Amino acid sequence: MKKNEILEEILNEVEKHPEIMSRREALKYLSVSPMAASILAGATIGASSASASSAKGKIVIVGGGLAGMSTAARLNNSLSNADITVIEPDPTSVSYQPGQTLVGAGIWDASDITYKRDEFVPSGVKLIKGSVTAFDPQNNTVTVDGSQVVSYDQMVIATGLKLNYGAIKGLDGVITSSGTDNSAVKNSGISKNGLHSIYFRDGATATWKGIQELIAKAKAHKGPQKLQAVFTHPNTPIKCGGAPKKIMYLVNSRLEEAGVRDKVELTFYPNGGGMFGIKDYHTAIVQQFKDRGFKWHYNHNLIEVDTANKVATFDHHWKEKGEFDEDLEEYTMVTKHERVEVPYDFLHVTPPMKAPDEVGNSEVGSDKGWVPVNKETLKHVKFNNVWCLGDVAAVPMGKTGGSARKQYAVLVDNIVASMEGKSLPSKYDGYTVCPLITSIGTVMLAEFNWASKPAGSGVNAASFPLDPTKERWIWWLLKVYALKPMTIYGMLSGRA
Fold first, then answer.
1. H or E element that contains 102
2. Which range of residues forms the domain containing residue 339?
3. What are phi and psi of 84, to 5 degrees?
4. What is the Cα–Cα distance from 306 to 283, expressed in whole angstroms?
5. Are residues 102 and 197 in the same domain?
6. For residue 85, what is the domain's CATH number?
7. Cβ neighbourhood burial of 376 (10 Å; 0-12, 13-18, 19+)
8. What's the whole-model pTM score?
9. What is the per-residue pLDDT across 286-340, written as a single tens digit (0 to 9) for each?
10. Banded pLDDT at 68 (limits 50, 70, 90)
């Protein structure tokens, strides 16, 4: 899909909500947004048949989600004799996961974010509708569904991660993906009786119903004690690190809209010791929490949910001085723990996350499960013909769609160069973008890389001329209208 086609898809999204913005206003906004302009310009970039590489080799891509299918498309554009196979079991694997937050807040419907895998398989690319159950990088093969052996010359791992609800007592045995594999999650108690999670698609739809139930309960609520809305952030890396806070901000907006905000107390329980890993964004978020009357308690990890009695139990952990080490002339630090039980009326669970066992327990995995790669070239640290990107890659701060958009271009450049016997030309700089929704109508666009400074401080200032720590309606328009078409029709064509 070319630039004008992506632009038309953006305008089609705008026309669904004429009460917010007209087509003419959207065109005006897009013309002054450097970020939108850079993505749209990128949509016209790609190797022509004349300049495409003639390198040959069989490429297998394990995982056909956003990262994997976009990589297949870009490789297909870059090679004149492409031999590419994508292995993916989920028929809706290319669905727009960042939109689940908006579904959870009742702004979008599930149908707005659901896309069919088979409609986005690039021409000439082969698709195996199955799951890789074993990796054998020593012999350059993978096994599909326990029986079909598939060989490769180059392999790209883009499986995504697993949502490990089962790590929380009371939700035992539940490990799922974002899409169709969610029956076990719902059977465990999530999506009913005040317990919700936007991290799987059906759960996002149920979260909106849960918010409406909370509003109804607040309208009927009498007495001095407030209803309790609790939001969690686990002790593992997660995809879309801002989502646990986004849904909290949106619940706040819906409560304000209904006139019952004063009847509900909103409290955030993150496992970590701050709101954001970058100081400027942390400071901005803390102020936003104060302005909205939110409460928060750092160093709390959700370990148990009593769904019948609606009680969440956290491991509160902190450091204290232990014995003095005379040789090192310092105190050893001892981690202390206490169980904290928190009654709730509404609980949003962000699950612990991990690599799929088939990946983490194989030779291509690592002790922590994630696939170990050179963080700049995205090549595996042990196997020269294995590459990885997206949520399953062991790179710092890389589990967002914005990261994947930068990673797949770097990976394709490098894999083509490797097939040609050349040195690797491209480096991923850790770019990540998190459109942090702070209300219905405002977004703080947190954009940064491994330099750990906001974009407005120089990381990507050319595409980000406004103060990135400020909440703005213009970034809401980017998040709600522009990013989905740019992703679905730009990235998945391999050109944005």
1. helix 100-104
2. 165-353
3. -125, 135
4. 34
5. no
6. 3.50.50.60
7. middle
8. 0.91
9. 999 999 999 999 999 999 999 999 999 999 999 998 888 877 778 888 999 999 9
10. very high
